[in-house]
Each structure stands twice: as structure tokens, then as C-alpha cells.
Amino acid sequence: QVQLVESGGGLVQAGGSLRLSCAASGRAIDNYGMGWFRQAPGKEREFVAAISRFGTSTVYADSVKGRFTISRDNAKNMVYLQMNSLKPEDTAIYYCAADSFRRLVDGIPVDYWGQGTQVTVSS
């Protein structure tokens, strides 16, 4: 019922920053927890970050803690992922997801996904 479109990916040098955006349509995102996942070549999709419906709780993967920040603006139906101090191992396709906060944190969202945006970090 909700459609998600990611943007903001690109090529950056190690140590650089990017901000990813997720635009939702079809349904207000305050119906959902929101999250970011990523998938590197040859790897399984992995959890990056999640934020609860009204932004009161956030959870981050250990690998990005202290470097990435997830945020949401329900009035604009937007979710963001600010990525700082990027490392080559952050290279992946990043996906926006909508589901219950619990399922996002557990890493098993099944409701809605975007098409992804490519992030490439050079050394």
C-alpha cells in the first residue's frame, strides 16, 4: 500500500558523507516503523538502522553506530539516513523499508521495500 523510493546514493571517498532519502507515497509513514538495510555484492541483505513510528526509538547495527543517523519527517512522508565517516565496507545498495519497529529491528521486514540506491565508497 505504501511505495518507497530511495535517492541520494553515489560515489564518495573514504571518510566522506552522504545523506540518503526515502520518499513514501500511497500511505502515511506514521503507520510504520521505518528502516534502512543494505546489500553488498555477494553478501546477504543486512540491517543498518530502524526508527519507530514517531521517532522515539532508534536502533543501529554495530557496524554503523556512531557514524550513521536515521531520522524521519512524518509530515513530509520522508525518512533519511545521514552517513558520515564512510568506509569502503559501507559500499552496498541501500534499501528503505516499512514495517513494524519490532520486525525491522529483528531484521525481518516483509511489508514494503524500495528499489534501492547505490552507495560506493572508494579507498
Per the principal axes of the C-alpha atoms, what is the gross shape?
globular
Main sheet? 7 strands, mixed
Query: How confident overall, as mean pLDDT?
Result: 96
Unreliable spans are none
Structural class estimated from helices and strands: mainly beta
Outline:
This protein is mainly beta. The chain is built from one helix and eleven strands; from the N terminus they run E-E-E-E-E-E-E-E-E-H-E-E.
Protein architecture, described:
The protein is built from one helix and eleven strands; from the N terminus they run βββββββββαββ. By secondary structure, the protein is mainly beta. The strands form two sheets. Strands 2, 4, 5, 6, 9, 10 and 11 form a seven-stranded mixed beta sheet that branches. A four-stranded antiparallel beta sheet has the order 1-3-8-7, with no helix packed on it. The termini are far apart. 4% of the residues lie in helices and 50% in strands. The model has no long low-confidence stretch (mean pLDDT 96). It is globular.
Topology of this protein?
Layout (H helix, E strand, L loop, with lengths): L2 E5 L2 E4 L4 E8 L7 E7 L6 E6 L6 E3 L7 E6 L4 E6 L8 E8 L1 H5 L6 E2 L3 E6 L1
Parallel strand pairs: 2-11
Antiparallel strand pairs: 1-3, 3-8, 4-5, 4-9, 5-6, 7-8, 9-10, 9-11
